[in-house]
# Entry
Amino acid sequence: MRIFALSSMLIAGLAVAQSANAASIYAGHAIAASTCAQCHGVTTPSSGAPFPPLAGRDAEYLKSALKQYRDKTRVSDIMNNIAGSLSDNDIDNVAAYYSKLKP
Ligand code: HEC
# Structure
Protein backbone atom coordinates (compact mmCIF):
# COMPACT_ATOMS: atom_id res chain seq x y z
CA MET A 1 0.00 0.00 0.00
CA ARG A 2 2.72 2.40 0.95
CA ILE A 3 4.75 1.53 -2.13
CA PHE A 4 1.74 2.03 -4.32
CA ALA A 5 1.06 5.47 -2.86
CA LEU A 6 4.67 6.49 -3.26
CA SER A 7 4.98 5.37 -6.84
CA SER A 8 1.74 6.98 -7.94
CA MET A 9 2.89 10.25 -6.40
CA LEU A 10 6.13 9.95 -8.31
CA ILE A 11 4.35 9.28 -11.58
CA ALA A 12 1.99 12.18 -11.05
CA GLY A 13 4.94 14.42 -10.29
CA LEU A 14 6.79 13.39 -13.41
CA ALA A 15 3.74 13.87 -15.61
CA VAL A 16 3.24 17.40 -14.31
CA ALA A 17 6.89 18.35 -14.75
CA GLN A 18 6.97 16.94 -18.26
CA SER A 19 3.80 18.54 -19.53
CA ALA A 20 4.79 21.94 -18.12
CA ASN A 21 8.07 21.88 -20.05
CA ALA A 22 6.98 20.21 -23.24
CA ALA A 23 3.67 21.99 -23.62
CA SER A 24 5.14 25.42 -23.43
CA ILE A 25 7.81 24.89 -26.07
CA TYR A 26 5.50 23.05 -28.46
CA ALA A 27 2.79 25.64 -28.05
CA GLY A 28 5.37 28.37 -28.45
CA HIS A 29 6.64 26.79 -31.64
CA ALA A 30 3.11 26.73 -33.06
CA ILE A 31 2.64 30.43 -32.30
CA ALA A 32 6.06 31.30 -33.70
CA ALA A 33 5.47 29.35 -36.90
CA SER A 34 2.00 30.72 -37.52
CA THR A 35 2.40 34.31 -36.31
CA CYS A 36 5.97 35.48 -35.80
CA ALA A 37 8.00 33.65 -38.43
CA GLN A 38 7.09 35.84 -41.38
CA CYS A 39 9.04 38.66 -39.75
CA HIS A 40 11.34 37.11 -37.14
CA GLY A 41 12.17 33.79 -38.80
CA VAL A 42 11.50 30.40 -37.23
CA THR A 43 14.87 28.69 -36.98
CA THR A 44 17.23 30.97 -38.86
CA PRO A 45 18.03 34.30 -37.24
CA SER A 46 16.94 37.17 -39.41
CA SER A 47 20.20 39.05 -39.15
CA GLY A 48 19.86 40.83 -42.47
CA ALA A 49 16.20 41.71 -41.92
CA PRO A 50 14.90 44.88 -40.26
CA PHE A 51 13.37 42.79 -37.49
CA PRO A 52 15.20 42.06 -34.26
CA PRO A 53 16.30 38.41 -34.02
CA LEU A 54 14.67 36.50 -31.17
CA ALA A 55 16.52 33.16 -31.14
CA GLY A 56 18.46 32.50 -27.96
CA ARG A 57 17.36 35.74 -26.32
CA ASP A 58 16.63 35.73 -22.60
CA ALA A 59 13.10 34.44 -21.95
CA GLU A 60 12.46 37.07 -19.28
CA TYR A 61 13.49 39.81 -21.68
CA LEU A 62 11.19 38.49 -24.41
CA LYS A 63 8.28 38.21 -21.98
CA SER A 64 8.68 41.72 -20.68
CA ALA A 65 9.07 43.14 -24.21
CA LEU A 66 5.86 41.39 -25.32
CA LYS A 67 3.95 42.57 -22.27
CA GLN A 68 5.14 46.12 -22.89
CA TYR A 69 3.94 45.90 -26.49
CA ARG A 70 0.65 44.46 -25.32
CA ASP A 71 -0.07 47.24 -22.82
CA LYS A 72 1.47 49.77 -25.24
CA THR A 73 4.14 51.03 -22.84
CA ARG A 74 6.47 50.14 -25.72
CA VAL A 75 5.22 51.54 -28.99
CA SER A 76 5.41 49.79 -32.35
CA ASP A 77 2.37 49.71 -34.63
CA ILE A 78 3.19 46.20 -35.76
CA MET A 79 4.07 44.66 -32.42
CA ASN A 80 1.30 46.44 -30.47
CA ASN A 81 -1.16 44.77 -32.81
CA ILE A 82 0.38 41.33 -32.59
CA ALA A 83 1.04 41.29 -28.85
CA GLY A 84 -2.49 42.59 -28.25
CA SER A 85 -3.86 39.21 -29.25
CA LEU A 86 -1.51 37.14 -27.05
CA SER A 87 -2.54 35.77 -23.65
CA ASP A 88 -0.10 35.54 -20.71
CA ASN A 89 0.20 31.86 -21.54
CA ASP A 90 0.98 32.55 -25.20
CA ILE A 91 3.68 34.98 -24.12
CA ASP A 92 5.26 32.47 -21.72
CA ASN A 93 5.19 29.78 -24.38
CA VAL A 94 6.57 31.79 -27.25
CA ALA A 95 9.29 33.31 -25.02
CA ALA A 96 10.25 29.81 -23.84
CA TYR A 97 10.43 28.63 -27.44
CA TYR A 98 12.56 31.45 -28.82
CA SER A 99 14.89 31.45 -25.81
CA LYS A 100 15.66 27.76 -26.48
CA LEU A 101 16.58 28.31 -30.14
CA LYS A 102 20.26 28.50 -31.00
CA PRO A 103 20.99 31.92 -32.48
C1 HEC B 1 4.73 41.96 -39.37
C2 HEC B 1 6.06 41.73 -38.82
C3 HEC B 1 6.17 41.18 -37.40
C4 HEC B 1 5.54 40.07 -36.89
C5 HEC B 1 4.54 39.13 -37.57
C6 HEC B 1 6.04 39.92 -35.53
N1 HEC B 1 6.94 40.91 -35.24
FE1 HEC B 1 7.95 41.15 -33.46
N2 HEC B 1 8.82 42.85 -34.19
C7 HEC B 1 8.59 43.40 -35.44
C8 HEC B 1 9.27 44.68 -35.53
C9 HEC B 1 9.29 45.62 -36.74
C10 HEC B 1 9.91 44.88 -34.29
C11 HEC B 1 10.72 46.11 -33.82
C12 HEC B 1 9.70 47.04 -33.17
C13 HEC B 1 10.32 48.13 -32.35
O1 HEC B 1 10.97 48.99 -32.92
O2 HEC B 1 10.12 48.13 -31.11
C14 HEC B 1 9.61 43.71 -33.48
C15 HEC B 1 10.08 43.52 -32.17
C16 HEC B 1 9.84 42.40 -31.42
C17 HEC B 1 10.40 42.15 -30.10
C18 HEC B 1 11.38 43.05 -29.35
C19 HEC B 1 12.78 42.59 -29.63
C20 HEC B 1 13.83 43.43 -28.99
O3 HEC B 1 14.99 43.29 -29.38
O4 HEC B 1 13.53 44.21 -28.07
C21 HEC B 1 9.91 40.96 -29.67
C22 HEC B 1 10.21 40.27 -28.35
C23 HEC B 1 9.04 40.46 -30.71
N3 HEC B 1 9.02 41.35 -31.75
C24 HEC B 1 8.35 39.27 -30.64
C25 HEC B 1 7.45 38.82 -31.59
C26 HEC B 1 6.65 37.64 -31.44
C27 HEC B 1 6.72 36.69 -30.25
C28 HEC B 1 5.87 37.54 -32.55
C29 HEC B 1 4.78 36.52 -32.83
C30 HEC B 1 3.75 36.36 -31.81
C31 HEC B 1 6.19 38.67 -33.41
N4 HEC B 1 7.14 39.43 -32.78
C32 HEC B 1 5.64 38.91 -34.66
C33 HEC B 1 7.86 42.82 -36.46
C34 HEC B 1 7.05 41.71 -36.35
Q: What stands out?
A: The radius of gyration is 17 Å. Residues 14-19 have pLDDT under 50 and may be disordered.
